[in-house]
Structure formats: structure tokens, C-alpha cells
């Protein structure tokens, strides 16, 4: 008797069966396309609903809770200032020399500015006062006819004075010296000195030093009270420098 084998993986079909398999109805042809379209529409609807569910709450939150913008403030001589949208900490000595004095600020006659104690660079100031030509004559009028006592000028108890022109040049040299010292030692630095326009102004001023007629021009000194940044580079973190 011949051995019996079971071929479970194969299926025997007659010629008629194969011909029947090749035939298909309209319904059988259309069904796959309908399913494909249905799946794509379902996917698009799901993605659209998901996006709507994410965007709508965000828009609602944005409208109900708008982003707060930083606001400058002042407490004594401690102050904050908004720079490029960022809140910068520092100091500022009020709105008048009387207020600056009452707050305990220090007047720097070489800078012609009132500074909070932490912003006053005593080392640079003392070193500059050892240089020749730092004793100036001050006047209360543009024509230099009314001289002002040195005590008033040196203590900053004024809003505006007219020193001789040599003060202007030495003032510029001092501020550059102070700026360099502050940057190297990570000391607070006032915004007046950080203005590029001030450096350009001082450069043009010093370029006229050799002109003998310039000494006849009046110079102006304001007892200013600029904002002084604790971080001299402002919003830039020092660890990135």
C-alpha cells in the first residue's frame, strides 16, 4: 500500500475553480476603494480635531491671561530697568541732587554723577585725583563771570555748572579709565558710560585738544543720577563672556 502524505500547506483547485476566482463583481471591486477613502477621512478628521483641541485652549489661555511685561521699579536707590524686554537690577539716586544726598549716594566730581555706594568706584576716583590738572574752576553762568565755591561743585549740590573746558577732556579720560577698571573687575557700571554716543562724543572732544581756541569754549557739567547696572554687561550672563 502506498504511503499517505498530508500536504497541509497546499490547496488543490480545479481549472473551473481558478476561473471562478478570477471573476469579481462590481461590489467586490468598489469595496477596497471605499475603505481606503473612509480611512483617509477618518485620519484627517482625527488630526484636525486634535489640533483644534490643542490650539483652542492655548488661545483661550493667551486671551484670558496675557503675558506680563516687566515693569521698572525703585526702592530707595535700589532700582530695576527694562532693557530689551528684560528686567535689569541696579541702582539709581533719585530725581534730584537733594534726593540723592538724602538716599546716602556719593557724588563723583570727575564723572559729575551721583552714585549709590556699590556703584561708586572709589579706587578709580582716588587714583585719578592723584593725577595733575584735576583741580577745576567752576562757574554758575555760561560766560564764566560768577565763580562757584569748590565745596558746592565737589559735593554735587547743583543741577548745572560751567567749568573751564579742561574739565571736559579730563572727565572723558577718567570715565574711560573707570569703565575699563569696572569691566575687568566685574563692577557695576552706569548707563551713561555704556552709551556708545558718549564714547563718540568724548573722542571728538579729545581730537580738538591741540586747538588753542577750544579752551575758550564753555563746558557744561550736570550733576546726573544715571541708572547703574549691577551686571556691567546688562542682560548678557557673565558666564558666557
Automatic annotation (TrEMBL):
Q: In its keyword annotation, does this UniProt entry include Transmembrane helix?
A: yes
Task: Respond yes or no to whether keyword Membrane is given for this record.
Answer: yes
Give the transmembrane ranges. 43-60
Q: Which UniProt keywords apply?
A: Membrane, Transmembrane, Transmembrane helix
Which domain of life does this protein belong to? Eukaryota
InterPro entries named among the record's database cross-references: Phomopsin_biosynth_assoc
PANTHER family (alphabetical): IG-LIKE DOMAIN-CONTAINING PROTEIN, MAJOR FACILITATOR SUPERFAMILY TRANSPORTER
Q: What name does the UniProt record give this protein?
A: Uncharacterized protein
Q: Which organism is it from?
A: Mollisia scopiformis (Conifer needle endophyte fungus)
Amino acid at each position: 500500500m502506498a504511503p499517505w502524505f498530508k500536504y497541509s500547506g497546499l490547496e488543490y483547485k480545479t481549472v473551473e475553480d481558478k476561473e471562478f476566482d478570477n471573476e469579481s463583481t462590481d461590489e467586490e471591486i468598489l469595496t477596497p476603494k471605499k475603505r481606503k477613502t473612509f480611512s483617509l477621512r477618518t485620519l484627517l478628521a482625527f488630526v484636525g480635531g486634535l489640533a483644534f483641541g490643542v490650539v483652542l485652549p492655548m488661545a483661550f489661555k493667551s486671551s484670558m491671561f496675557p503675558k506680563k511685561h516687566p515693569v521698572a521699579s525703585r526702592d530707595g536707590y535700589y532700582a530695576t530697568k527694562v532693557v530689551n524686554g528684560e528686567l535689569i537690577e541696579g541702582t539709581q539716586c533719585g530725581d534730584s541732587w537733594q534726593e540723592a544726598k538724602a538716599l546716602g549716594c556719593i557724588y563723583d566730581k570727575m564723572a559729575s554723577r551721583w552714585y549709590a555706594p556699590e556703584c561708586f568706584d572709589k579706587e578709580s576716583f582716588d587714583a585719578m585725583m592723584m593725577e595733575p590738572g584735576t583741580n577745576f574752576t567752576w562757574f554758575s553762568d555760561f560766560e564764566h563771570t560768577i565763580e562757584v565755591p569748590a565745596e558746592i561743585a565737589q559735593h554735587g549740590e547743583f543741577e548745572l555748572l560751567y567749568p573751564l573746558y579742561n574739565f571736559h577732556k579730563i572727565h572723558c579720560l577718567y570715565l574711560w579709565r573707570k569703565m575699563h577698571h569696572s569691566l575687568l573687575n566685574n563692577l557695576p557700571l552706569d548707563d551713561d558710560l555704556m552709551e556708545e554716543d558718549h564714547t563718540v562724543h568724548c573722542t571728538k572732544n579729545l581730537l580738538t585738544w591741540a586747538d588753542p581756541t577750544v579752551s575758550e569754549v564753555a563746558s557744561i557739567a550736570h550733576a546726573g543720577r544715571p541708572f547703574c547696572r549691577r551686571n556691567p554687561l546688562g542682560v548678557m550672563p557673565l558666564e558666557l563672556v
